[in-house]
Design a protein that fits this description.
mainly alpha; 0% strand; 10 helices; 284 residues
Length: 284
Amino acid sequence: MLKFATIMADNTQEEMSMQMSFMQHLDALRWHLVRSAIAIFVFAVGLFCFNNFLFDTVIFGPLKQDFISYRALCSLGYKIGAGDVMCMTVKNPHLQTLSASEQFFTHMWIALLGGIIMAFPYVLYEIWKFIKPALKDTESKPAKWFVIVASILFLIGILFGYFLLFPMSYNFLINYQLSDSGIVQTNNTLDDYISLISTMVLVSGLVFELPILVYFLSRLGLLTPDFMRKYRKYAVVIILIAAAVITPSPDVTSQMVVAIPMYLLYEVSIFVSAYVIKKHKLQV
């Protein structure tokens, strides 16, 4: 009986130790989340205070005829012999609001969204700090590179969406006419504009995380470079369809401006998958 009681006491103490360890991890996670939220809040407040720069320069930049993307695309069109095919003319840059509170809540939403984007690298860093103690020495360094590479890819995707995807799509849609009669006029609202630019920019940032997704799928054995090479032609078709949807302009040159970076991203993902598989075989 005494031996049984001793074993039960040891098991109870071990369970309490495990429970305390879990609570400690939970507490550590809470502080990582708190610091991440503080970083987002600080950036958001800063952007909220500089509303003229945030909106007039950044958000409403694509509504101006001298926007850098329009000038660059127009110049590119002339250089490749396409003439003014890639030149865009901004039509009716004025936006309407349909409620008294729309501008205020739009201001808050964009400031928060900007805070999330700017604090994204720091949030990833906090995630890495949380999982670092559970990693082996051989896994710690790759995880650190994950934070750096994922942050760079996300920011590149954000810039790609802002400077290319959104301006090309928006100008096609805003100038599209059902007929030549002029009976239907497009009077864009602030809510529609903000929804379109925020969605396209964020989706672009997430799409550029493809190599990171491929890395983890390859580590889990769910994806191989041979599989990606085998179905490369199908991937090209999907990329071309996606480019045609994203840039609904019938101009092939504009579609290629979007499709080529996406295809390069796919090729980079194949290289990442091959690297992971090769390294895993060497370790085994």
